[in-house]
User: Fold Zinc-dependent metalloprotease from Candidatus Alistipes intestinigallinarum.
Amino acid sequence: AWEFANYAYVMQHADEWIGTEDKDYTFRSLVQASVMNQLYYSFVSVSANLGGIYLNEKYENDPLPTYTAVPRERQRRALRYMLEQLEEMSWLDNHRLNEDVIEVVSLGEYCQDMLSEVIFKSLSTLDLSASKSEDPYTQREAMQELRDYILRDVAAGRESTEANLALQRRLLIDVIRKAGVLEPTRKRAAAFADPEPVFGPTAATRVPSTDPAFAPLPDKARLIRESHLQRTLSGRSPEEIEGMRPLRSIAFRVQPSTDYNYYEMLLNMQQTYRQGLRSGASERMKKHYRYMLLAIERALKVE
Assistant:
């Protein structure tokens, strides 16, 4: 926490420290950019704990394991710490410092948007670490804690700050994008289909019961064959050669399927906002709940 306190102190006093030496405000702009960069790298460093794995250079008779997953509680603390810091970014908006520096948006809002993306992306790294841990911190658990923290005022029927409302909107955008409910997402699913084989039977002559091409993909994973493999195979010469060619490696990109977790989260958010409408919340908050429910219902609507 001291690191962010130092950044806030710099932003608070930078203008008086710089004084009249920065006549064209170039240095003031550099101060802002430097603080934003440091914030980003700080978040990235902390986010490495989510789904993190410690690697050890293991030797013979070495008692240390080759790898160890970051402890569950440490991952939880990292997520909570980032969320707490993310919710209060108003200290970046030093109006005196920014008075003569052209800004399109609030620095606090810009950084909240940028850093929330760091957190959301970190959730996709948890599966590998969880599979290597005796006490795993799963993506589903992390998503639940993320939702409970951001929507805590909704669940309690309390007033939310503008920063928290903005965070709720950013969360909903990310969840809808990853829940597999948008038409572009469904179209992209076709990209995971296997192309026609270079050799062997075509799709019209395949027999599903015996053809390995019809075998199901591994559970919770989608494997994409690299296009260069097809080009390599199609370029082989049928003529005999002396010796042997190098063995060809088949590269795969493995992307765990997580849209079901986001779909569940979307439904849970819908239920939370509906409960908020039935609570004794203010009209300001109920207006926000109606807006969020409208976005969710539009995303869930099947054309």
About this structure: The first strand starts at residue 53 and ends at 55. The chain is about 55% helix and 5% strand.
